[in-house]
Automatic annotation (TrEMBL):
Organism of derivation: Streptomyces phaeofaciens
Keyword set includes Signal: yes
Record's keyword terms, sorted: Signal
Name used for this protein in its record: Cyclase
Signal sequence interval, chain numbering: 1-30
Length: 213
């Protein structure tokens, strides 16, 4: 083993743990749906680290709609803060935040848009639809110590012609099939380590529910 790699192994493992604590979520309001995210960070050297993050989403949609009618559902995450340091290690920034949600069943998705948000860095947030998923990407970077709010995601939906329930929720069932990913940049010794992190909701709550009447 390269002696330099051996010296870096422990700090990089610590960096992985730090990456998992990079998103500190503000207090949840009564309207928020709480989320428990099971996360894993993989440093370039050392073993993967796991941790649970608490977050929340405020979802809005009508309780009922008539068959074939159009309506909107919105998903807004809580404000978050990237800590400047954790346990003596500096958090330089986080970047490439990607949040995924499945296209709801019993409805046709006719459009998506982003609105609001703040402190998300110089990159422009985007939303796309691919493989049956709605994908919000926030390039960042978002510096350590900075508070930010992800944009609100609006879904334009048309209810199916028959009855049923239209639900929104996040994607993700495992570390290899996540609903949230981001990369943390952590200076370690004489280098900056990029630590990719993947998270999935466990359990995965319904964020909005609309019954077709």
């Amino acid at each position: 083993m390269n002696p330099g790699s051996a010296r870096l192994r422990l700090p990089m493992a610590a960096a992985a743990a730090l990456a998992l604590t990079c998103l500190i979520v503000g207090p949840a309001s009564a309207a928020d749906t709480p989320l428990n995210l099971d996360c894993q960070a993989k440093p370039p050297i050392g073993s993967a680290q796991t941790l649970t993050l608490a977050a929340g989403v405020d979802g809005t949609a009508p309780d009922t709609v008539t068959a074939g009618s159009s309506f909107t559902a919105t998903l807004a995450t809580q404000p978050m803060t990237v800590p400047g340091s954790v346990s003596g290690y500096t958090i330089k920034s986080i970047k490439n935040i990607t949040l995924r949600a499945p296209v709801p069943a019993n409805a046709t998705l006719t459009g998506t848009s982003l609105s609001g948000g703040s402190g998300t860095g110089s990159g422009t947030p985007t939303v796309t639809v691919s493989g049956g998923e709605i994908v919000m990407t926030v390039p960042g970077p978002i510096n350590g110590g900075q508070s930010f709010t992800l944009p609100t995601l609006t879904l334009n939906l048309t209810a199916a012609a028959s009855g049923g329930v239209i639900e929104t929720r996040l994607s993700g069932t495992s570390y290899s099939s996540p609903g949230l990913t981001f990369t943390a940049s952590v200076p370690i010794l004489f280098t900056t380590v990029s630590v990719p992190t993947s998270c999935f909701p466990s359990p995965n709550p319904v964020l909005t529910s609309t019954t077709i009447s």
